[in-house]
Every structure is written in C-alpha cells, then in structure tokens.
Design goal:
Elements (H helix, E strand, L loop, with lengths): L4 H18 L11 H21 L7 H19 L4 H29 L4 H30 L2 H15 L11 E2 L3 E2 L10 H11 L6 H18 L5 H22 L4
Antiparallel strand pairs: 1-2
Amino acid sequence: MTYSYNAVYNQIWANAEKDFREMDIDPNRFLDAPYTITKAKLYTLSAAVIVKSVQNVGTITPNLITLIYALSGFLSLAFFLQDSFILKISALFYFFLIKGALDWSDGALARLRGLTSELGRILDIWGAHVNNIAFYILLYFHVYQYEQQGCILYLLVCLLTLKSVDINDQVFKYYSLANIGPITTTTPTSTNKPKTLMLEIIKWPISDRARTLDVYLLVILFEILVSNSSILTSYIIFFIPALTMVRLLYNFKAIRIL
C-alpha cells in the first residue's frame, strides 16, 4: 500500500503530538513552546519527505535508516574538517535539521510497515548517541582549527571518555541494570528547589537536546561568518568536560553506585 505525503505527515505529527502530551505541551498553543513546536514541524515535514520516498523500497528498512543516521554524523564531521566553506555550512545544516529528520524517519517507517521492535528502539538510541559524539568532535576540532593547541585534543579525549560512561548517554538508562535495578532518581520536592535549579543549570550546557546543540551551532556559525576565530567556543570547550564530570558523579550517586 502506498501512502500519500499528507498521510505520512499526519502519522508522524500524531506521534509528535503524543510526545508533546507526555511533556505537558499543547501543540496548538505555539507561544507556550515556540522552539519545540517549530523544530518538531521542521522534523515532521522533512521526515515525511524521506518516508514517502522510500516507503515502497523494500531494501530500505527502518534499521538501515538508523544506520545511515548514525554514520551521517561522522560523514558530516568529515565535511566540516575540509577547507571548504560550503562543506562546513552543509555539516552544520545536517546537525540542525537533517539529523533530526533521519531520527524521526526510521520510527515513522517502522510504524508505517508495522515493523516496530525493541531492537529498533535500541539502535535509535545509539544512533542519537553516535551523532552527539560526532557533534562534540566537530565542536572541538572547530576550535583546534583556529587555536592549534594540543590541550584541545586532550580535552576532547577527556570528554569522550566521560561520555562513554555517562549514565544519561547509555541505552541501559531505559532498562534495569543487572544487580542494581531500574535507574530512578528522587522526585524533586519544594525543599530542594535550589539544588534542582543548580542541577538544571549544570545539565543545560552539556545536554544532548536539540536546543542546546542548536545554540552551539549558532555560535560556530557566527565564528565562521563574522569573527573568523574561536572567540566563544574556546571557552565553551573547557566547561563541557567539567560539567559532564559533575553530572556523571550525580548520576552514579542517584543509582547508588557511589
């Protein structure tokens, strides 16, 4: 059965609306969450084009799209490292829009074909993880291209090491850990609001959410187009590993490893 573009779009948007409800966001009230709704619309429009184009191509499976999604992050990184303005901008555009469109496409195609599975969900999580790793490598090499200092590469190695054991970046945060049980944290109460606010401030610069990465993309774009230097990102890269370490220690404490 061949679905029209509108049918594919409506299916993807209906799934997005379900996610909105879980986040207590009304998609019909744009001003309540303008960034989230705008980005979701862009992802839906783009993902619908991809799914509509490949829905009847039997060799293209949802898991294959997930694999393409994961590998495309490093392909874009390779583009960014070239001495070409167009390739650099293309890499930034990938992380701004195409990354999310591919991420939404695999699940949409799986639901369209009735092929949703736990394996697909796990691969999707790891695809996102690989893309985020590729983005942070891009960020650090962006600074390195201007500064040419070895300490930047050491900081990158430290960050990748921390992220490899960061509980929030791992598939098993969705499941039970052997001999530990489900990963749960205490629900914040009115008595620890300052602590909760501080944790949110710490988590925001190292979050892998689209809004955080988009801020970094805008900073990189500004430096490429305007300043022709790493005037801002040279400071950012020093804070990210430190904040990641703080969050890592907090996560370990939350699941009673520490």
